[in-house]
Write a structure and sequence with these properties.
Number of strands: 17
Largest sheet: 7 strands, mixed
Helix content: 25-40%
Distance between the termini: 41 Å
Number of helices: 13
Strand order of the largest sheet: 6-5-4-7-8-11-10
Strand content: 15-25%
Length: 440
C-alpha cells in the first residue's frame, strides 16, 4: 500500500517553447510538440458548439459556428482541433451529467473496486478525479473509506456531486491548482481522468499539473477514446469543439515522457466506442511496465500511426457514411415514415450538423437528462423531449444518436417493437435493429 505521505523531494521546472502561448495553441501550432500544423485529418465544415442546447427563446437568434477541421501533427502525430473557443466558455455550465448513463455508472463502480484492490487504497490514501462531473465515480469510493476530492469546472454539475456527499472544487485543473494543493499538504496516490484529456487545450500544463500533484509511488489513470477505433470504425461524430485532441497510445507516450512520467500499463476498453485506460507513474517509480504497453505501441506503429500519410485516408469513409445515412433517411421520409431521435449527446450534434439532418428528417429527439428537456439541439434546432414522448408519437424509426450506448438503449426500448418501430444506428454505417430481437 502507498500513501500520500510519500512525496518527491525535487520538482523539475517545466520547459516551454517560446511559441507556446494561448495564441499559439489557437493558431496552427501543435499543442503537444509545438510544430506547425498543416495536414488535414478530416474537415467537417462549420458547426456550433455541440453541448450548447438552446432554450426556445434563443432559436431565432444568431448562433456562433466554428470550423470543425481536425489536423494531424507531422512531428508527434497528435490529431487535434485548433482552439477556437476558450474552455471557460464551454465548460463553466455544462449539459452533460454522467449519472444518466446506467452502463457508465456501473463501469465506474467496477473501476473503483479494481483500482482500490490493485493499489491498496484505504483511509490514508488520497484520490483526486479531474473533471469529476456529478460524482458518478467518486461516490463509489465511499464504501472503501477512501478520501476523495473532485475537481470540476462546471458549477451546475459540481453541485450535483456535492449532493452525493462528494467534495468537489469548482475549478479548471492545471499546474497552478496542483501547486496550490501541494502547498496545502495534499499529494495524490491516485489521479483519475476519464474522458477529460481530450477536452484540455493546454495538455502540457494539464500533464505537468498531474505530475506535480502525484505522490512518489502514485498512479494516474486516464481513459479516452482510442484513435485507432475512431479511424477503423468511422467514428467521425466523436470530433467536436469540446474535444481538442484525439489520442493514440503513441501520442500519449510522447506526452508522458515530456513530463517525466512513464506509461506502465494499458487496457483496451469497450466504452465510448472503444477506449484506452492508461496507467502513468513517475519515471523513477517502482511500478513495473506491463508487456501490453510495448505490444500496443508496436501495433500502432505497424498500422501507420507514425506515418503522416496514413491519416489522409480517413476522410473518404466519412463522406461515404454521410451519403449512406442521408439516402436511408430520404427513402424513409419519401415512404411517409415518421423518424425520431433517441438521445441528445454531443456526438449526435456533430452528426446532425455535418449531415444537415434537421426537423425535416427528425420530428424530435428524446433524452433522459431533464436539463435538456424543452431545449433544442445546436445548429439543427431539433426539439428535445422526455423519453415518454416516443410512446405518445409511436414513430416507425428511432435514430440512436449515442450509438456507443446501443445495447443499453435497445434494452430500454424493446417495447417499441410492439408497434413495428425499428432502431437505426448510424455509425460506422447504417444498421437497422428490430428491438424484438437480441441486441447486437
Amino acid at each position: 500500500m502507498f500513501t500520500a505521505n510519500q512525496t518527491r523531494s525535487v520538482q523539475k521546472p517545466i520547459q516551454e517553447s517560446p511559441v507556446v502561448s494561448r495564441i499559439g495553441l489557437r493558431h496552427g501550432y501543435c499543442r503537444l510538440c509545438h510544430a506547425p500544423l498543416s495536414m488535414t485529418f478530416i474537415d467537417l465544415g462549420m458547426s456550433p458548439l455541440c453541448e450548447s442546447f438552446l432554450p426556445a427563446d434563443q432559436i431565432d437568434q444568431m448562433e456562433p459556428y466554428f470550423p470543425l477541421h481536425a489536423l494531424v501533427c507531422g512531428g508527434c502525430f497528435l490529431v487535434q482541433l485548433k482552439e477556437y473557443v476558450k474552455p471557460e466558455h464551454i465548460f463553466t455550465e455544462y449539459a452533460y451529467f454522467s449519472s444518466y448513463s446506467t452502463s457508465w455508472v456501473e463501469h465506474a463502480h467496477r473501476y473503483c473496486q479494481m483500482i482500490s484492490s490493485r493499489f491498496g487504497l484505504g483511509p490514508k490514501s488520497q484520490v483526486f478525479e479531474i473533471a469529476s462531473n456529478d460524482g458518478y465515480l467518486l461516490q463509489h469510493f465511499q464504501q472503501f473509506g477512501v478520501p476523495v476530492l473532485g475537481i470540476e469546472p462546471a458549477a451546475n454539475v459540481a453541485e450535483a456531486a456535492r449532493s452525493k456527499n462528494v467534495p468537489t472544487l469548482v475549478e479548471f485543473f492545471g499546474l497552478n491548482l496542483a501547486r496550490r494543493l501541494v502547498l496545502e499538504g495534499r499529494r495524490a496516490d491516485l489521479v483519475i481522468g476519464n474522458n477529460v484529456l481530450a477536452q484540455v487545450p493546454d495538455i502540457n500544463d494539464f500533464t505537468a499539473g498531474m505530475a506535480h500533484l502525484l505522490a512518489a509511488q502514485g498512479v494516474i489513470t486516464l481513459e479516452f477514446p482510442h484513435l485507432e477505433r475512431l479511424i477503423s470504425e468511422n467514428q467521425f461524430d466523436t470530433i467536436y469543439h469540446e474535444h481538442f485532441s484525439y489520442f493514440s497510445l503513441v501520442a500519449v507516450d510522447r506526452l508522458a515522457r515530456k513530463h517525466d512520467l512513464r506509461l506502465f500499463d494499458v487496457e483496451q476498453l469497450p466504452t465510448h466506442g472503444g477506449s484506452l485506460r492508461v496507467y502513468l507513474c513517475h519515471a523513477d517509480s517502482r511500478h513495473m511496465t506491463s508487456p501490453s504497453v510495448n505490444a500496443l505501441l508496436a501495433h500502432e506503429r505497424a498500422i501507420g500511426f507514425e506515418n503522416i500519410d496514413s491519416y489522409a485516408r480517413f476522410a473518404a469513409g466519412v463522406h461515404r457514411t454521410k451519403r449512406q445515412l442521408l439516402s436511408f433517411l430520404i427513402e424513409c421520409k419519401e415512404k411517409g415514415g415518421k423518424i425520431c431521435g433517441y438521445g441528445a449527446p454531443g456526438k449526435g450534434n456533430t452528426l446532425l450538423n455535418y449531415c444537415g439532418i434537421g426537423s425535416d428528417f427528425l420530428d424530435f429527439t428524446v433524452d433522459r437528462n431533464p436539463y435538456k428537456h424543452g431545449r433544442y439541439t445546436p445548429g439543427m434546432h431539433i426539439p428535445i423531449h422526455p423519453v415518454s414522448a416516443i410512446d405518445e408519437v409511436r414513430p416507425e424509426y428511432l435514430l440512436i444518436l449515442p450509438w456507443n450506448l446501443k445495447k443499453e438503449i435497445v434494452e430500454q426500448m424493446r417495447h417499441v417493437g410492439a408497434w413495428g418501430c425499428k432502431l437505426v444506428v448510424p455509425i460506422p454505417s447504417v444498421e437497422v435493429i428490430d428491438p424484438g430481437g437480441p441486441a447486437s
